Amino acid sequence: MSAQGQSPTGLEAVGSVAVHTFAAHQSIQSTPTAHQSMDGHHVNAMAGDRGGVDPARLADYEDVPDGHFYDPDAEYEPDPEYAATLAPDAARQRRERIGPTGRPLPYFPIPGPLTDHGPAKIIAMCNQKGGVGKTTSTINLGAALAEYGRRVLLVDFDPQGALSVGLGVNPMELDLTVYNLLMERGMSADEVLLKTAVPNMDLLPSNIDLSAAEVQLVSEVARESTLQRALKPLLADYDYIVIDCQPSLGLLTVNALTAAHKVIVPLECEFFALRGVALLTETIEKVQERLNPDLELDGILATMYDSRTVHSREVLARVVEAFDDHVYHTVIGRTVRFPETTVAGEPITTYASNSVGAAAYRQLAREVLARCHAE
Ligand SMILES: Nc1ncnc2c1ncn2[C@@H]1O[C@H](COP(=O)(O)OP(=O)(O)OP(=O)(O)O)[C@@H](O)[C@H]1O
Ligand SMILES: [Mg+2]
After folding, report:
1. Pick the CATH number of 121-374 from 1.50.10.10, 3.40.50.300, 3.40.395.10, 2.50.20.10
2. Residue 227 pLDDT > 80, yes or no?
3. How far apart are the C-alpha atoms of 15 and 217, rounded to whole Å?
């Protein structure tokens, strides 16, 4: 180690970074400082002990007040003051159980068993923006509700058939799908229904045939309520029917909204999350006024949240600002486990039962049930 840059305190400046010389390390070990942890490791050498070093050589750290930890990530944070408001102090978080949405986290009890079933509440999973987690949320909310003993029917209402694929069904091999149920009079749901590997959970699958329905329905009488009529005979058999919508606000989505009692809007925690949400809420209001007065926005579900990034936290804060109590307390984190489950063709609750992702969707199921019981 060169003697150049050696200071009386034993700090040596290398470029703009201060490091300890061996001699200084020895002396620190005998006299612990405020910046040294009990196991003898010197923490935060850069910010705390720069006193004797030529300040010009440490210009990068000039803004760090004495005694504060230098956080290399802080440079990338757009507004540290604002960031601090988004991450309340840990002690308060523990004491008041502040959740990721910045509100105190209520306790959602584990739901008790049901003695009888139905009539079903119909939930439309809807956002015209693509790739926000509609299909993932449909599969995993459904599976979590089924785990809690609810009878669940999932409706694949996207011609891409992603929901069917996510449950291990190959849409190309299907003869009968939700399309037949919609378009052919006299077709019974039992002919189309598939049992899934999850007990208590069934599927109305779809494939590319459904894209024709969008065109064919245009000339139908009461075209917006076709799905509602098709689901009616099934209501008594299920507790929850969850419809996975396609990423558009076309006639299929309007059918889903007309059939539904509640809408869940998944929002990915990224910059353009709120773009288009005004159009979606406008569509929901129009359907409410003209077609389905019972329809309600149950909640906004923040998905793909990464608590380590200020960006995610900022977006979530904006979403809470805009929608307030409509935002679910449950937030779904970003994890590679979800794409893996699609490949495996099963919900995360069975594929990785003990994972954080599975826990998140179980918590969402409890929150959804709590909201339903509160009515
Ligand atoms: N919480 C998450 N963390 C990481 N990846 C996720 C998460 N949720 C979903 N994904 C992945 O993001 C992609 C899009 O998710 P998904 O298919 O559920 O969205 P979608 O809204 O249904 O999309 P589309 O509009 O195309 O139907 C998928 O590859 C999925 O595995
Ligand atoms: Mg989808």
Report:
1. 3.40.50.300
2. yes
3. 70
